[in-house]
Backbone:
């Protein structure tokens, strides 16, 4: 039963990635395929944006055109009332925002956390620096820290949001890596590698870090669920992804004349994504724990 749940969760996450990749084919006010003056334009919004901006839509219709299933702009215009179709288009493109933002945050967190944690595990200046960072981030919840940093910015941007979240997640990754490095460094095979004259860098890279990646991947999967929920909460109150980047959290905060039905998409997306990530992360955690237990009995 549990394996079935993991397969369903993995399939839904794969579909989310596909939705993010092909969002322009599903929801867009630009044509997917158009015939203009004897030549075919494939995804002109991507391949020929300057030409598409000059073409009159009536002339484009005469030559033959194929539109996306949801013919609506994913960007929000504050001066124009939004239709239900436009909200659904924003929901589709919100999947891309979730995937790109989460991957960006995790990539930065791993890039910062793994080397800092590995250095801190050797008990040098990085250990003292990491301890202060853990104390700082542990004093306040991540939601409050990110909200305060975002509110203090004059012009919020997607990159700044990713950097802030990535730095906070990097502290958590570094703390985990430090503990794992200290644990693995005391094992017999690491002590033997040092006794054979292996350099500290060689010992860490070849003998320590390979045993650290399992817990790091589990932590990153749990962290992905936390990033999705945190981004949605901050965007709901206007402190997350800036306009015109589509966001599921911002859509939940926009209850207008279109009614409540278009809100089911972002609500289901946030809940479904976080639950699927937790299911996969819990499964990976049990697998890593089982392998660690088997290795300790050898």
Residues:
């Amino acid at each position: 039963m549990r394996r079935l749940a993991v397969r369903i969760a993995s399939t839904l996450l794969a579909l989310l990635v596909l939705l993010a990749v092909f969002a322009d084919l599903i929801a867009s006010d630009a044509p997917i395929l158009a015939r203009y003056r004897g030549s075919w334009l494939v995804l002109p919004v991507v391949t020929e944006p300057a030409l598409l901006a000059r073409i009159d839509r009536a002339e484009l219709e005469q030559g033959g055109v194929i539109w996306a299933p949801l013919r609506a702009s994913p960007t929000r215009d504050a001066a124009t009332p939004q239709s239900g179709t436009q909200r659904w288009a924003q929901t589709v493109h919100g999947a891309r925002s979730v995937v790109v933002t989460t991957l960006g945050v995790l990539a930065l967190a791993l890039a910062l956390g793994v080397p800092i944690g590995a250095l801190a595990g050797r008990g040098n200046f990085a250990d003292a620096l990491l301890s202060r960072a853990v104390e700082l981030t542990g004093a306040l919840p991540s939601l409050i820290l990110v909200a305060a940093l975002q509110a203090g910015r004059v012009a919020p941007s997607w990159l700044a949001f990713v950097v802030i979240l990535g730095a906070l997640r990097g502290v958590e990754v570094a703390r985990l890596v430090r503990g794992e490095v200290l644990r693995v460094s005391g094992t017999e095979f690491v002590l033997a590698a040092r006794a054979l004259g292996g350099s500290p860098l060689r010992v860490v890279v070849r003998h320590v870090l390979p045993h650290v990646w399992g817990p790091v991947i589990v932590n990153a999967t749990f962290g992905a669920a936390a990033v999705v929920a945190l981004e949605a909460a901050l965007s709901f109150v206007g402190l997350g992804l800036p306009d015109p980047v589509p966001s599921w959290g911002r859509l939940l905060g926009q209850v207008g004349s279109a009614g409540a039905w278009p809100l089911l998409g972002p609500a289901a997306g946030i809940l479904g994504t976080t639950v699927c990530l937790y299911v996969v992360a819990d499964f990976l955690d049990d697998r890593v724990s089982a392998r660690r237990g088997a290795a300790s009995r050898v």
Q: What stands out?
A: The mean pLDDT is 80.
